[in-house]
# Entry
Amino acid sequence: MAAMTAATATATGPAISATGLRKSYGDKLVLDGIDLRIPEGTIFALLGPNGAGKTTTVQILSTLISADADAGEAYVAGHDLARRPAAVRASIGVTGQFAALDNLLTAEENLLLMADLLHLPRREGRRRAAELLRRFELTEAARKSVATFSGGMRRKLDLAMTLVGKPRVIFLDEPTTGLDPRSRRTMSEIIRSLVDDEGVTIFLTTQYLEEADQLADRIALLDHGKLIAEGTAQELKRLIPGGHIRLRFADTHRLESAAALFGSTAYDSESLTLHLPSDGGIPALRAVLDGLDDASIEAEALTVHTPDLDDVFLTLTGRPRTGAAANSPKENAR
# Structure
């Protein structure tokens, strides 16, 4: 997917909003009326299994393909996606799963080429290229052929090219796929800095759930072309069972007294621990602490365990289609 960048646009309201967004190819329904509202200066992560429609969503919102003409509307950086696609393109950057670089050029030459495509004055283009090479720690490799770059260096340069035009909204479609853990961490730090330091809005799709957990302000789960859940990471984790409070006691007497107090048989006499089902919320935690205090039972340690995003993903996605959608061909949107 080619990187797309351009000059800053003034946006009002949310950075991205969509209502009833649909996409179909013949009788194959890929997106089934999704709604989005993403505030400026935040990181939004869209998760879902392969074929859920994540890349199709990015392609529509970045003007690479059009949504169904008779369904939905969307605004990106304050511009109507259908009526002002050029204005949208002038306000966004896009980085895909595969770095869109010219292997015959050096890192500096790739950046200068992007500056020329954006019609930046030559002096401004050189200044911007030098600034981005420093920011992405590529100065020493500036005059080396991109063909010699590692995967992590290529991804950093690809994102740097996206930033030449100072976009206000950036779409990152699985930008860390195939990178080693160290390179993924570096990319995550760069992504977060774009939001914290410059107020950029990031629309992220990723296969790494821990990446979304650590980075995203809000997360949505897409399955069979529909948004099935949305919220913060903690809100999503509380949607499924499995959370519990783990109490550890100094002796068997306190353990058994606490088990009797809470009417629980889920305790381990060997480790002196008691598990109480809980959503991990403050009211539930307060109730446990108040109960122990009223009964004068002292616990040595308390830990709260909640399901992680892997549990949420596996529980909520991958279910068979229902209704009319079950009779349509399996969609292959990425």
